[in-house]
Records
---
Amino acid sequence: MLHAALIGFPSSGTSTLFQLMTSAKEAPRGKGDVSIGISRVPDPRLDVLTAMYNPRKRVPATVEFTDLIAPTRTGAQALVDVAGYKNADALVHVVRAFGSPAVPHPSGSVDPARDAQAMENELVLADLAVTERRLERLEKDIKKIHTAELKQERDLVQRCRAALEEGRPLRALELTGDDLKRLRGFQFLSAKPLLLVINLEEADVASIGGRVEKAAAHTGLTSFLARAATGAVALCATIELEIAQLEPAEAAAFLADLGLTTSGLDRVIRATYDLLGYISFFTVGEDECRAWSIARGTSAQVAAGEIHTDIERGFIRAEVIPYDALVARGSMAACREHGEVRLEGKEYVVQDGDIINFRFAT
Ligand SMILES: Nc1nc2c(ncn2[C@@H]2O[C@H](COP(=O)(O)OP(=O)(O)OP(=O)(O)O)[C@@H](O)[C@H]2O)c(=O)[nH]1
Ligand SMILES: [Mg+2]
């Protein structure tokens, strides 16, 4: 399951967004603790498949969101030791762009670009400390044993340190697959893809809607949009939360009034998927219709492991039919008749919308 960690400076709406994403009844409050919540990935294709199969169970893909409850925290520094953050696939930085005199900004003014850059700097500093500790250790080890692996790691960590010293996040580095494998254990915060959630002022929603470029221009964040492995969404967390509590028809009308076609939850999840290059495949049947998420480029065998390690291990082949073909024919049987169900081997690269039946030996 994809895991996204919410971060933000105090009073920027992080917990409000958490509440929105996870349908939590109340915003997490307290001190020095982590809230974990699950978000169901909206996918109209799963609704269509469910209507077709009328299964006992409909299981959407899920994303796990983590929110840090620590009003005294200072940005990234507080995240360094929190396991839930280190393991995150992506960071979601809630950037305050709303004024609200009732909830003063701790820095005394609202300045989204300042906050976005300050958070970036904190992530970079936290990682810099990790590289320095690791290099010290590596130098000692290399004195004792000269392995090529240790030296390669040292070169790589030195490269990382050099970038960090220039204030560049590691997500901006071009790294090979081997590099990424070597770095995985460090769980560098600045290496994680970053989604900026521009938390707009209520009054700006009508004119901006969900248009990210417009929101970025309005809030001084334009230059951030072009950065490596960075995405952005514009919304007003408090309005979205109100909308989320309405009946679906009312919610749709409210969104339309604001010039929005999809909810904030939808847009945050979609943007996170796009940022990480995630796609969905489906398994269908009378028992269960289910959506699964995997990284783009994942092979059929590895995708099978998402369901169960036994299926990955015993993988024989995958019966695959694209979503559009199934919907066009109306049933799996009709697809079979027309020879549209393909048999694919373990190296087959799963495509977004594939409906897959895995054949495996136990
Ligand atoms: N006007 C306005 N207020 C908001 C918005 N988002 C959040 N708030 C308010 O700002 C206050 C802080 O929101 P939280 O979601 O708790 O912010 P946080 O970043 O989690 O704050 P801490 O964890 O306490 O540092 C609450 O009173 C929210 O209702 C927004 O989009 N507009
Ligand atoms: Mg909070």
---
Amino acid sequence: MKNFLSEEFNIEHLPQWFCPTCKIGILEIGEKSADIEQTAESTALRWHPNYDHEFVEYTINVILKCNNKKCCETVMSVGSGHVDEYHDYSEKGEEIHEYVTLFKPKYFHPSLNIFNVQENVPKNIVNMLNKSFALFFCDSDSCGNRIRACIEFLLDELKIPREFENKKGEVKRASLHSRIENLPQVYEKIKTLLLAIKWLGNVGSHGNEGLTKKETIDAYEILKVVLDIIYKPSDEHIFDLANKINEAKGII
Ligand SMILES: [Zn+2]
């Protein structure tokens, strides 16, 4: 997941993002598949006496294709860009000086999976997770809020009520914090993890500081562990199979 922390990428050397559809192919940029247009604001600055590459701002549209021949999904990405000056030395000690276009993606459609979930994770949690993935590049606060919503759905799946009755007999909405605290003993291990995601989600909802990609990645890493613990695929059928083979002392 850490490879998603970068804000911008050399348009000539994009990362090896996995295809969100088949999950095994790599997204590749075809020839002439990046539409790069200078913004009106930076174009208007061309008259400026000090105009150079630092004034250039782009709007960029990239068409990516999955390289898995059985999939060939198309993913579109839109974002901004600018020009960066690059200095280095070759192995022969010659100075290398070139300009590179850096791409800062804002949206992907279909959205990239920041991580893959187990097949048996309930659909409503996966749907909310996908909504968070769609927001990952453009709005970290809203993304964090969606990750927090995944926890609410997870608690629904674990049969922790969203409402409670107070001493006056009134039905009130239970806070996420109290729902987490109400988890039975068997889930004690994941309480700490869920509370951490809740706190990060709260910053996204109400905090002045605001979340960054680093915190949303932190929240995803914690959530992945939670989902792996709760929805770990059962290996009982493999033990059953092995027992039957052993009983038959051969094929069954
Ligand atoms: Zn694919």
